[in-house]
Amino acid sequence: MARRLAYVVLALAACTIDTGARPDAGPCPASPDFFVSDVYPRYLVPNQCGNAGCHDFSDGHGTLRLRTPDPAPAPGQSIDAWPLSWRENYLSALHLVRCDAPLDSRLLTVPEGQSNLHPPGPVVLDRATAASVVQTWVMP
Amino acid sequence: MSRGLAVAVALGACLLSAGGIARAQDRGEAHGDLRIFTQPAPSDFLIVITPTVTGKVDVRPWLRFDVDWSADVVTGATPRTYGSPDVVSAATSFTEVRNVIGAGVSGIVGPATLSAGYAYGTENDYHSNLIRFGGSVDLFHHNTILSADYSHSFDSICDLAQPGVPVTLRQPLDSARGCFAGTPGLTTESLGIDFVELAVSQTLTPRLVGSLSGTYQHLSGFQSNPYRTVRLDGGLEQAQESHPSVRDRGAATAKLRYAVAKLAATLGGDLRLYRDTWGIQSITGELSWDQPFSLAKPEWRYVARARGYVQSGAVFYRDAGNADSYERAGPVGSFFTADQELAPLADLLVGARFVHSMAHQPAHRKWHMFTNVEWEFGLDYVKIFALSPHPPNFARIDNWASALVASFGVTGRF
């Protein structure tokens, strides 16, 4: 039996998984400027996404986490030079959109109650505006 | 049987069964314990409370039934996103409860014992069904014990439904709300786990018993944590952790127990070597000392132990503090992880257990039932050492105590 165990150990020693090829899928190039000018003030703020106990950075829940914003960055400025709060808020929202199907983005479907994952239930006040803002953000 | 041989046989039984089956002269056993595991880091704390109850009864001299229940109540706060240490991730509070119930049967046929059992585990986002089979043969007046065990677990994990979405764009599950209820947008992933263990225990000398065991585990299916995310490519992508779907794990363990008759003590030494197909190799060494506080009162005893462990990282692990981090260099092929257990680590454990065991005459049973009652209290201190600059949940281990474990148990035999 010891010999069999040794074979198993040797077999494992010789085998390591193939990590495969890196997926050919880049990030969604949604406009940073449009996030500052429209997505944040026209969608995230009116629907109170960043409230304490909701998606506030410090005590919120879920994947979307929003910091209290600093003064807005100037249009055209690289996001690497943005204040941390704006950069992180942009990235946090960006991860919830689908470039190929913006209206299926979780940034819309979850708070609209299209799945059963939003504990407070549907909270989006104006769905038409919300859809327009997200669609324009992703596909200007 | 000589005294030395009797000592060795007792050591062997301890080595193999660790109290797992009722002693030959007992008809059954009831056991309960409570284990509290805590990682006391202020910003990234974790507490796991695990109550366990087991019962075994011999309905015939050759037929034994066992039942067990355990639960894990987990509460803590953790950053769900693994990324650059200069970007503070938001911590998410969580509480989870897992229950596992099981039952089994074993039968004695000559020198052989055959067993089978089933266990069901459930939590909000994870279900498991496990079947197990085992057999052992007790040879040469208990001097040699051969055993083999096999189990298969059918697990189901709740996840966000993302068919066809590349792994670098996959999003995490936000919460367990709606899991296993046919909720649109959610799906159930599967994981199958096969486990085999072969072991032999041998009396080597009248005072020395050794055992050698080998384990092999094959996992196939969804092995990522559906809640964890990893920052990729400067943070522009933040995707659900992506682990390979197949993992083979093997380990070989050698144990020795030496009886120091003059002190009625036992010196133990364990060595374990481990390797898996994700590239993790580890070695574990443990020394233990089990001795009565006084030869005049052998019912009181203590067990002290010290364990050292070191492991390499998985082939697809990249540390957030290194130049080739996921955030700077992207995933390793299709894979990226936020699992601390896949990082290169070492740990040191020192602990002690205090045990009181008292036998009672059948006419004066404890609580009208037990002929032997054993109380046990244990405390372990664990310090984990990161072997890379900034592994996941670094705050949780970068503390004066990476973990403290307290346990309290009572076992009654009847």
Classify the secondary structure makeup of chain B into a structural class: mainly beta
Helix content of chain B: under 10%
Examine the coordinates and then state which fold CATH places here, giving the name of the CATH topology of chain B.
Answer: Porin
Straight-line distance between termini of chain B: 26 Å
Given helix and strand content, the structural type of chain A is mainly alpha
Number of strands of chain A: 0
Largest interface: A-B, 45 and 52 residues
The averaged pLDDT of chain A comes out at 85
Radius of gyration of chain A: 21 Å
CATH architecture of chain B: Beta Barrel
The CATH class of chain B turns out to be Mainly Beta
Sheet with the most strands of chain A? none
N→C terminal distance of chain A? 67 Å
Broad shape of chain B: globular
Q: What's the total number of strands of chain B?
A: 19
What level of helicity do the residues of chain A show? 25-40%
Strand content of chain A: under 5%
Nearest-integer average pLDDT of chain B: 91
Main sheet makeup of chain B: 16 strands, antiparallel, barrel
Strand order of the largest sheet of chain B: 1-2-3-5-6-7-8-9-10-13-14-15-16-17-18-19
Number of helices of chain A: 5
What's the short story on this structure?
Chain A is an all-alpha fold. Chain A has helices at residues 2-14, 32-44, 84-94, 106-109, 127-138.
Task: Write a structural description.
- The complex is a heterodimer of chains A (140) and B (414).
- Chain A has 140 residues and is mainly alpha-helical.
- Chain A has one domain (27-138).
- Helices cover 38% and strands 0% of the residues of chain A.
- Chain A contains five helices and no strands.
- Chain A has helices at residues 2-14, 32-44, 84-94, 106-109, 127-138.
- In chain A, helix 2 (32-44) packs antiparallel against helix 5.
- Chain B has 414 residues and is mainly β.
- Chain B has one domain (3-413): Porin, CATH 2.40.160.
- Helices cover 6% and strands 60% of the residues of chain B.
- Chain B has three helices and 19 strands.
- In chain B, the strands form two sheets. Chain B has a 16-stranded antiparallel barrel.
- In chain B, strand 9 and strand 10 form a beta hairpin.
- The longest helix of chain B is centred in the N-terminal third of the chain and has 15 residues, at 3-17.
- The radius of gyration of chain B is 24 Å and the shape is globular.
- Residues 1-10 and 16-22 of chain B have low confidence and may be disordered.
